[in-house]
Amino acid sequence: MIMKKQNLRYMKWIGKMIILLFILNFQFSIFNCSAQRVSLDECLEKALESNFSIKIIRNEARMDKNNLNYSTFLPTLEGTAKQTQTRNDTKTENSVGEVNKMSDVKTDNYTAGVALNWRIFDGLEMFTTHEKQKELLAMGELAVRQAVENLILNVSAAYYNVLVQHHKLMANRHSLALSNERYDEAKVRHQIGNRSGLEAQQAKIDLNTDSSTYVRQKEALKSAYITLNKLMNTDLQMVNYVQDTILLGPQLTLSTLEQKTLEGNTALLMARKDQKISALDLKNARAVLFPTLDFNSGYNYNKTDTPSSSTTLNRSNGFYWGFSLNVPIFSRLQNRTKIKNAKLELENTELSYQEVEKETLGDLALMYNSYENNLLMVNFEIESASVAEANLDAALEKYKIGSLSGIEFREFQRSYIDAVDRKLSAIYQAKVSELSLLLLSGDIRDSFVLE
């Protein structure tokens, strides 16, 4: 009897060592890539700094900033210089019949000048063009903001997915340890004659199943890290354990979200800017109906050398200035057509804004409905997971004393894993719904500490 107990303890020790080595092998494969612990704010800062899409959209905004200047109000100044030489054979004959022939007659001509042109009035087009440049710059900044907000949502979702997969791995690890312990118990009891070999075989099948599930969960965790690393534009094989939990913020209210969405939603702000740009385009189209007034000034220099001519040098130079007025009278109705099309474009932007506003508020209502349901499910699933864990512990004690069969214990295991999966999925979905609502309302950037 003593020998049987010693064998039982020995088999338990061997089983625990096997599962421990299996777990440590996985942990080593994780930590040998990187031992650094990364918070969500650090991941967001890394992504905002190095993400390719953000770099591209920021460069486009810089181009809009470069285009914003006072060039439409400034004059143009050009300098020109030109030199030409001609060589001709000439023949002249006067009225009395005298003939004069000359060969290789060389003529040099030199011209130079400086010209200033300043448009003083153009139907106020220069002012509306400058205002349009301001609106385009604001539109570019909103595009950067929209890209940043979407990246924050994607990085946060990927970060929290890593946490979910990590906690699922911990639950699978716990279930695998229990299956290994159950297999050791069943095998020892079969050796001492207390149980049939069928129980040990079934325990072995369940152990192999849990081992496969554990390996697949390791793959899911690694894939989650790769997704996060792609968004941060870092080494895809780098793995950082994020020692954190998913914390839900204070419950949001629909009325407050609707008000903030109408005031600060980036898509709506961009649609409003598009309206302003279309209104400025209409003003520019109307500007062609007005006359234009230009001021012209400059300095010209001309010199012609003709050694073979009676006048060997001809030179002129001097300053000039003046005004020119251009009055449009008829342009084949092209200007009228441009104005009509600009009016239609303005009407389209107003309709587009109404459409975007309706769609955004509709998305907000749908998302808030999911958000409320997800919060309810979180409470249910947390309670279910807690009960399932307590039941599993109790079932383990009953199984050890022989009052519970292996098949019945397996059902408690499955219930525990299912409950943990549902709890983690509910918390994750609730957090993603919360972030989506903050994205729609324009408050997602304020929810994180970003430099």
In short:
The protein is of the alpha+beta class and 451 residues long.
Structure explained in plain terms:
This protein is α+β, with helices and mostly antiparallel strands and 451 residues long. 66% of the residues lie in helices and 15% in strands. The protein has helices spanning 2-31, 40-50, 52-67, 125-192, 197-232, 254-264, 266-287, 334-401, 406-441; strands at 76-93, 99-121, 292-305, 313-326. Strands 1-2-3-4 form a four-stranded antiparallel β-sheet, with no helix packed on it. The chain is elongated and about 150 Å long. 24% of the residues are buried.
Average pLDDT number: 84
Structural class: alpha+beta
By DSSP (H or I, 4+ residues per run), the number of helices equals: 9
Helix and strand pattern: HHHEEHHHHEEHH
Which stretches are low in confidence, meaning pLDDT under 50 for 5 or more residues running? 1-35
Q: Gyration radius, to the nearest Å?
A: 41 Å
Distance between the termini: 69 Å
What is the strand and helix layout of this fold?
Blueprint: H1 2-31, H2 40-50, H3 52-67, E1 76-93, E2 99-121, H4 125-192, H5 197-232, H6 254-264, H7 266-287, E3 292-305, E4 313-326, H8 334-401, H9 406-441
Antiparallel strand pairs: 1-2, 2-3, 3-4
